Amino acid sequence: MTILGGRAIRAVAFVGVLAGATAAAELLFPSKGTQPGGLDGGFPFDDIDTTCVRCHSQAAVVDPTGYYMPFDTWLGTMMSNSMRDPLFLAALTVAEQDKRNIGQWCIRCHSPVAYVNGDSLPGNGSALNSLDDEGVTCEVCHRSMIDTTDPNSPYEWNAQITFDPTDTKHGPYSNPSPFHATLQDPFTSTSMLCGQCHEVKNPLVNLIDSQGNDTGLPFPLDTTFEEWSNSAYNGATPTTCQDCHMNADAGTVRVARGGPTHDNPPLHQFVGGNAWGIAAVYSTLADGGGFLSGLFDGGYWALISDAGYPNAYLAAQSAAVANLAGAATVQASGPTGTVPAGTPFALTVVVGNLTGHKLPTGYADGRRVFQQISIVDATGTENVIIGAYDTSTATLATDPQLRVYEAVQGTFDGGADNHLVRHNTIIKDTRIPPTGFQATTDTVPVATTWFNAGDGGYVDFDQGQYTLTAPTTPGNATVKVRLFYQPTTREYVEFLSTTNQSDNRGTALEQAWNSTGQAAPILMVETSTSMTVGPPPPDAGQTDSGSPTPGPDASVTDGGTTRSSSGCGCHSGEGSGFLAIAAWLSFARNRRLRRG
Ligand code: HEC
Ligand code: HEC
Ligand code: HEC
Ligand code: HEC
Ligand code: HEC
Fold first, then answer.
1. Omega before residue 154 within 30° of 0, cis
2. pLDDT averaged over the chain?
3. Cβ-contact 137, 113 below 8 angstroms
4. Which residues have CB under 8 Å from 10's CB, separation 6+?
5. How much is the pLDDT for 582?
6. Residue 18 — pLDDT band, cuts 50, 70, 90?
7. More reliable by pLDDT, 41 or 540
8. What pLDDT does 60 receive?
9. In the chain, how long is the greatest CA-to-CA distance?
């Protein structure tokens, strides 16, 4: 079959007429928004490195120690790296194996520039250039606009974005830039800007519901926008994606060289929970310095190397860890009276969702949040009872009482699997709904009753009860409850690697994963409750069976002495950066300097 070049596709899409059967086969489905070639004759997309960075970066401003400009905060995020992400690339190859040229659909979101410039075919990404690799670039958001000639614009899914054909940058401010046209556009500050991509629906496969009925709806792979828009956050005065994902910088600062100062401008620190992904991308950039100095040849590297752009990745990673710490609440209540040693007792745990969508949301395959329960006995020894994670094998111990929040997709006939372009059914969705959630066919919890409010609606928390066994040593004990977020699992990485029959992206992913702690769970929040353990009941002396069964993690440990802060060998936020801690400290210092 002939593979069409970018030019041919442009011509086809631009005039809206299919030139022939081959072209029709290559454009897998019709869509709206700016099409390949749609900016031909207009203003082409700019290269960030040579344009925006000259004015919207730390390097460009008078204050060389500051670290808050759009470019600085954006660079280390997953959106800046969405086309270099080794997990994405490995999944793209498997998708292409399953359905040739479906990759054009993937690439349209992960690099809208590539789609519009006609580089998204072949679907495996072999026609991409370095401009396309810049991912979700500045102009993707700042030239995105409502198409006033199309009453249905904007589209809340599949990156059907309309781009301003001129150089005009749409944004929140009314004052013009002396260097490029600007337009104060309320659209930039709406959740819909984000919803254009954070709602992923496979246009080729319909959703089959749990009864086996074809719903006629395109299969919903990611539904972050829909979860948000059907929650209390989408009220009369909405709490937007930007409100939570672009924290205000504290201070009065410039956001451009030559521009005025602004009070508390929003930071471009678009982070979710995927702190590992940032490290994984960074690990693939051969050597951080080489990549980054290549990016900034033209003298900028010399200006910025003091604070150092590797810090951009570290800062984004730290911001993601901090974001996770504010994403949920955990409460635990244990027994009030004395519990005889070695006897069962009940523990109630409530986990509340503070995010504006499900917890977790977005990409389903491999992503999960789980609870971990441990008991510190009277001798000070901590044993993980439920939710033990063994970092040496990257596995989570199974337990019938374990509470995992995740979505599992697959096919109605075949069950769970990781071939995402074949998914046609949701097998399980136990992610915690947001406040005021109204379920839709796409977003209804599946195979769980955890969130049922009793009136047909859903609550924004999970209240569960465990039956545990008191320690054998009488005295004061503490039950600890921790909530962990895991960006991806061993099973998913191994699937993408072993299923790959086409290129080295599976191996590259495995290498990145191995060199970055194998995406170990990240501690979100923890709480504890104390209990009093009494002497064992008179008739219980015969065995030791009442003692807590140590999880696999406990069996591979150092006796619990050095694990007091996390108890599971997982990343705990502090000091877990993928770069030397010294680099982080220098970032923190620079930031303080600016404030002082
Ligand atoms: C030569 C300097 C310069 C360059 C290069 C430059 N900008 Fe600007 N830009 C400015 C100034 C100055 C402002 C006004 C800033 C303000 O209001 O604080 C501005 C404002 C903006 C705004 C805010 C618009 C609004 O109305 O809210 C956006 C968005 C923007 N620029 C994006 C970009 C992007 C994207 C690029 C690269 C393609 C870029 N700029 C390149 C100097 C520049
Ligand atoms: C994912 C979308 C997105 C990307 C990518 C993005 N921006 Fe923005 N930017 C926004 C939004 C949204 C606002 C306004 C936020 C608000 O209203 O709270 C904004 C605000 C701005 C502003 C004015 C206020 C401020 O925060 O500085 C400038 C200047 C700007 N962006 C430049 C850039 C540049 C340069 C890049 C690339 C390095 C970039 N943006 C990348 C979404 C984006
Ligand atoms: C052009 C499509 C596009 C637009 C518009 C867009 N995003 Fe994204 N976003 C992506 C892609 C693709 C990724 C994932 C990249 C990856 O992990 O490989 C992503 C990742 C993210 C992440 C990180 C997720 C994680 O797992 O940690 C956050 C947070 C995020 N986006 C928020 C936003 C917000 C807020 C807006 C609007 C201001 C927005 N995005 C607009 C495509 C987009
Ligand atoms: C009330 C605050 C809030 C609002 C509103 C909000 N988010 Fe989030 N979001 C968070 C927090 C906190 C996290 C980190 C927890 C997590 O990763 O699930 C997060 C995580 C994410 C992630 C990472 C996925 C994951 O679960 O790992 C993406 C992507 C994202 N948000 C996109 C969006 C988009 C798009 C919108 C608007 C449609 C939005 N968020 C609205 C607070 C919010
Ligand atoms: C409509 C836009 C869109 C389309 C189409 C799309 N994605 Fe994504 N993708 C996203 C967004 C947004 C995220 C981030 C969501 C999150 O982090 O929760 C993401 C995240 C991912 C991730 C997780 C990355 C990480 O580091 O955790 C993988 C893998 C991925 N996409 C693969 C694909 C593949 C393969 C295709 C095509 C078959 C595809 N995507 C199509 C928007 C899209």
1. yes
2. 84
3. yes
4. 36, 37, 40, 118
5. 27
6. very low
7. 41
8. 67
9. 89
- Separation CA 341–CA 343 (nearest Å): 6
pLDDT at 284: 84
Looking at ligand 1, which residue's alpha carbon is closest to its atom 12? 259
Q: What is the pLDDT of residue 440?
A: 97
N residues, the chain:
596
pLDDT value of residue 530: 97
CA angle 406-411-412, nearest 5°? 105
481 within 8 A of 332, measured Cβ to Cβ: yes
Distance separating alpha carbons of residues 404 and 431, to the nearest angstrom: 8
Structure tokens at 590: 């620079």
Amino acid letter at 519? Answer: A
Amino acid at 433: P
Q: Which residue has the higher pLDDT, 51 or 86?
A: 86
**Residue with the nearest Cα to atom 30 of ligand 2?**
70
362 lines ligand 5 (CB under 6 A): yes
* C-alpha to C-alpha distance for 119 and 129, rounded to whole angstroms: 8
518-542: pLDDT as tens digits: 999 999 999 999 999 999 998 755 4
Contact 162, 144 (CB under 8 A): yes
- What is the CA(355)–ligand 4 centre distance, in A? 6
For atom 18 of ligand 4, the residue with the nearest CA is 360
Around ligand 1, the residues with Cβ closer than 6 Å are: 46, 51-52, 54-56, 138-139, 142, 169, 171-173, 175, 177-180, 182-184, 255-260, 262
- Report the pLDDT averaged over residues 77-98: 97
Q: Is the pLDDT of residue 21 over 60?
A: no
Report how far Cα 155 is from the mean position of its chain's Cα atoms.
22
Tokens of 539: 């008739």
Query: In the structure encoding, which two tokens stand for residue 555, read together?
Result: 């069996």
CA angle at 516 for the pair 571 and 555, rounded to the nearest 5°: 50
Asked if residue 242 has its Cβ within 6 Å of ligand 3, the reply is: yes
| Model confidence at 375: pLDDT above 60 | yes
Do residues 131 and 80 make contact, with C-beta atoms less than 8 angstroms apart? no
